[in-house]
Amino acid sequence: MATFDGRDIDRKELLKHVGDVSQLARVKPYRLVEGHEDQLLAVDVTTGGGLEFTVLPGRGMDLAAARYNGRSLAWRSPVGDQHAAHYEPEGDEWLRGFGGGLMVTCGLTWFGASCIDEGRALGLHGRASHLPATNARWDGEWSGEDYYLSVSGKLREAIVFGENVQLSRTLRAKMGENRLFIEDVVENLGFQRTPHMILYHINVGYPVLNENARFAAPSVRVTPRDADAERGVADWSRMQAPTPGYLAQVFFHEMQPDADGSVTAAVVNDSDIGGGLRGVYVRYFPSELPRFTQWKMMDQGPYVVGMEPGNAWVMGRDVERAEGRLQFLEPGESRRYRLEIGAVTEPSQAEAIESAAQTAKTAK
User: Fold this and answer.
1) Which residues touch 40 (CB under 8 Å, ≥6 apart)?
2) Vertex 25, ends 22 and 31: CA angle to 5°?
3) I want to staple 292 with a disulfide (CB 3.0 to 4.6 A). Which of 177, 201, 250, 253 is the partner?
4) Cα separations (Å) of 158 from 163, 290, 342, 363?
C-alpha cells in the first residue's frame, strides 16, 4: 500500500484518482542520442516517493543519475554516460569511461588497481561496468496492494579458453518509497575454476556531500590504504569543503553487523540540503560481501565519497592472490548478493545509523 497526500491508500482507491498508474510511478526506457553516449540504452525509474534513478542496461546494469525530490544523490563525472563501445581496458584508462553515478559495478573476475596477475595484464576495476546486458527487461506491476517497478538483465564476461561468468541482476523499487533493492546472482557457466571479484562502487556527491557531512558506519577497525590515507585517518568520518590538490584517501573498514546480519553505512548531513533529504545509505550483508572500502576524495570537481562493499580489497588481483584471499567460482557454482540503497529522509533514520556507528566504536 502506497502513501500519498499523507495517507495510506489502497490499490482500488488509488486507481480512482488517476488515468494510469504511470501518473504516479513508472519505468521509462529510451536511448541516448549524441556524443559518446549515442545509442546507450537507459531506463528511468520514478517511484512516486521522491526517488528517481536511471539504470543503464547498456553499461553493466549500473545506476547513473539519481535524485530525491529533485536533489542529486550521486556524484557525476565529466565523462558522462558513455556507450560501452568506448571501453579502454589498459592500465587506468577505465577512468575515461567512469561516469560516476549512484552505483558502478566492478568485477566480475577482477577489480581494483591495475596489475599483472600470473602474466596477464589487468586494467583498473575490470570489465563489468562496460558489459551491455542481454535479456534486458523492465516492468511495473501490482502485487496485491503494492506496485513494484523493476529492471533486470544479464551480463556475460567470457573469453575463449578462459572465464565464462554471468551476472543476473534485478533492481526493484516499490511505488511510494525512497529506496531500491538490488539482487545479483553470479554464476560460473564454464568448466574451469575461475577467479571471482566483485565490488559495488556507490558514489555520493553534492549536495549530500559538503563540509557538514560525515560518513557513518558501524566500523570496528579502520585501516588506511597508504601514506596519504594515513595522514587523514583521524578524520576518516568527517568531510571537508572542496580542497585544491586533495589526494584521494582510501580506508578499509571492518564492520559490525546488526542482529539480522546486515550493515548499514551512510553519508549523512545536518545542514539543510532541501527537499527533506538528509543523506544516502547502503545496506548489505558482510556474509556475502565481507570487505568495505571507503573512498574519500575532497578535490575540486572530483568531490565524492565512495561507499564500496565488495568481496575483496582494491589493491589488485595479484595482491589478493599473493595474500591467499582471492575467491574462486567452481564450475556451476553461483553466489548471491543483496543490497539496498536509499535516501535518508527522517531524523530517526539518521539517528539509528549513527547510533549503530557509535556502538561499534565503543565495542572496539
Assistant:
1) 31, 32, 56, 58, 59, 81, 82, 83, 84
2) 80
3) 253
4) 5, 25, 32, 44
Written as one string, the DSSP assignment of 19-64 is SSGGGT-EEEEEE--SGGGTT-EEEEEE-SSSEEEEEETTTTTEEE
Q: Are 173 and 151 in contact (CB under 8 A)?
A: no
pLDDT tens track for 44-55: 999 999 999 999
Type of residue at 217? A
Q: Each residue of 242-293: pLDDT tens digit?
A: 999 999 999 999 999 999 999 999 999 988 899 999 999 999 999 999 999 9
Kindly state the greatest CA–CA separation across the chain.
65
Answer whether the bond into residue 108 is a cis peptide, omega within 30°: yes
CA distances from 225 to 30, 98, 104, 230, 265 (A): 40, 22, 21, 7, 19
Backbone dihedral angles phi then psi of residue 7, each to the nearest 5 degrees: -140, 150
Q: How confident is the model at residue 6 (pLDDT cuts 50, 70, 90)?
A: confident
C-alpha cell at 274: 532541501
Q: What is the pLDDT of residue 237?
A: 96
Distance between CA 155 and CA 123 in Å, rounded? 19
| Sign, Cα dihedral of 65, 71, 75, 78 | positive
